[in-house]
Design goal:
Blueprint lengths: L1 H28 L16 H4 L2 E3 L2 E2 L2 H10 L30 H10 L6 H6 L7 E3 L6 E3 L3
Antiparallel strand pairs: 1-2, 3-4
Bound molecules: heme C (3 copies).
Length: 144
Amino acid sequence: MRARWMVAVLIVGFALSSVVAAVAAEQATLPAIPGITAEDTHPNGCTDCHRKVSADGDYSLATEIANMVKEGRHPRVSDRMLQDLPKQCITCHKPDSKYPFGEIMHSAHLTGGAENHFITNYQGQCMHCHAMDPQTGSITVKGL
Ligand code: HEC
Ligand code: HEC
Ligand code: HEC
């Protein structure tokens, strides 16, 4: 009687541990994609990251431009053209221009491996900038 009871406990125990293992495996392999399988922590895209976070931490787009101007990598841009961002970037960075917005954004955020803070701090996730409509499957850029 006691032996049969022990066998039953073992079987139930084994079944339970395989369920626990399966759940753990699923959690371990499910990638955390913003807005797809995980919370979208940057629903506004660019401006959720590119803002002033402290006195010496100004990552706003206007400051990013000013830094590139200082480094001689960007033409000077009037304040009037930096009002409604990122939309106004497209004035110069049209898809058929010499510097299309998508291409310069992909290069800025997705090259350089471990040197690039978008890759090391934000997992290089496309969906920090892009958003998908689950009904239609169409993909857009947040804020444009
Ligand atoms: C989730 C956070 C995040 C989002 C969203 C994001 N960026 Fe960035 N961006 C970064 C980080 C981090 C860097 C620094 C990359 C590096 O280490 O070189 C960066 C760098 C840049 C730079 C500097 C490039 C250079 O060559 O100096 C520009 C300009 C820029 N981002 C514009 C944008 C625009 C425009 C968007 C929206 C279309 C955007 N970013 C969306 C985090 C973000
Ligand atoms: C008045 C036109 C103009 C506007 C507005 C403009 N850009 Fe540019 N941008 C340029 C030109 C021209 C270049 C190429 C500069 C070069 O290679 O010498 C460039 C280059 C860049 C580069 C590449 C720099 C490099 O090191 O290769 C980034 C990144 C960039 N722009 C981001 C932006 C963002 C973000 C905005 C909006 C906040 C913006 N730009 C608005 C004209 C503009
Ligand atoms: C830093 C923001 C940012 C990230 C990260 C990003 N994109 Fe983009 N992507 C853009 C912008 C801005 C455009 C241009 C939209 C426009 O011109 O209307 C774009 C456009 C595109 C396009 C249309 C073709 C083109 O180049 O304009 C494709 C395809 C695309 N992205 C795929 C991806 C994929 C795949 C990833 C991840 C590996 C990714 N993007 C990551 C900002 C981003």
